[in-house]
Amino acid sequence: MSTATISMTDGQFTRLRDIIYERSGIDFQPAKKYLLESRLGRRLQELEMEDYDQYIMFITIGPYRDDEFQEMFNRITINETSFFRNEPQLSVFENHALPAVLDARADAKRIRIWSAACSSGEEPFTLAMILHRTLGVRLMDWRIEILGTDISGKALEIANSGVYSSYAVRSTPKLMLDRYFTEKNGHYELDPEIRSMVSFETMNLKDRMAARRHGQWDVIFCRNVLIYFDEKMKKQVVQTFHDQLADDGWLFIGHSESIRDLDVAFEPVDIPEGFCHRKVGCNPAGAGLKLSA
Fold this sequence. Notes:
Elements: H1 10-24, H2 33-46, H3 52-60, H4 65-76, H5 87-104, E1 110-115, H6 122-135, E2 143-150, H7 153-161, E3 163-165, H8 174-180, E4 181-184, E5 187-190, H9 192-196, E6 198-202, H10 208-212, E7 217-222, H11 231-244, E8 245-253, E9 266-268, E10 276-279
Parallel strand pairs: 1-2, 1-7, 2-6, 7-8
Antiparallel strand pairs: 3-5, 4-5, 8-10, 9-10
Helix pairs in contact: 1-3
């Protein structure tokens, strides 16, 4: 059976779109109908299904509906990421946010970082490498907690393996690549000490209770994810970040994203290419920074 002859009706698209939104918060506008149709066509062929009505029943009332939703989600989303992605923003984290957090937590010697929607783990592992380099021999004196979460179990399998393709490390500075990776048969295996600094968990950003179970964080990264949400879902997620961020914590978002009009009590920090925010009224803890108006 060739899926080239299977078209998706407007009604089928609406039902699929509603299912995806209800489960993940990702909003597919009508203009993206072709995207669902093209990415799910091969899946219908694999399942030997004749139309999208059968598939909709499969993911809603079938015995394997949860597993199939994960499979569908892996196919309709693009997990485009790499180590040390957007280096200027990471420099802001390393040279501004991290010193402020280290200073504020000098007594407790505990740092908690959440990498939300982390895909296959490149982002939280990058943050772990930066912390490892910054603290050096002092690392053993600190309790470091870095959590990477994602809705895709398949992506997290890669993260837990700690083995990556050359494409994933394409943005990694050579010194960091040599220090923290071992090349084997064209793949790059991450240093065990860095791997031990990060834990992973499947989490849906719609699930506010799941986020609350982890308590407060000093730094939250959520980059290039909010662009997939409508305004309602975006506000809900950002409010969750506000609730779970320490009063003097830092939120980093993607360079193409904005939370300015969401009526959530965050203010952008006035650092070029930082794309970071702090709670309204936050004292930057001696970091010499100011919050934008």
